[in-house]
Amino acid sequence: MPLANITRVEKFSSCxxxxxxxxSDEENVKTFGKCNNKxxxxxxxxxxxxxxGLIDENTGMVMNVSDLKKYIDIAVMExxxxxxxxxxxxxxxxxxxxxxxxxxxxxxxxxxxxxxxxLLYKVKLFETDKNIVVYKGE
Length: 138
Hints:
Largest sheet: 5 strands, mixed
Number of helices: 4
Structural class: alpha+beta
Strand content: 25-35%
Order of helices and strands: EHEHEHHEE
Shape: elongated
Oligomer: single chain
Distance between the termini: 26 Å
Mean pLDDT: 97
């Protein structure tokens, strides 16, 4: 059976503040610069979720794209879109809301809702056009 990747792209907007409770205020400013602004800042994120698997002989699909869209709505859009990551998402209560950690949150959330989580291959998260994180569950 042939293998194929399917990628679904969605966009969401969130705000956050890069700040670690394990660092002093001075260390936070030195580490995170303007992203440590006490009032936070926002991003228009783009996420690419890729699944990989065998193409089913009967359906001709690795996964129904409408199912993938539903999983992304539940795992990404509902908890993250138009939210303050630090205040509205419990996962970030004790984690810095870096793009790396947001990608891991998305990965774990997708794994929790997918009917066949073993198909999840990659989460690619664009914080900006120039800042991109790829996470493959490693």
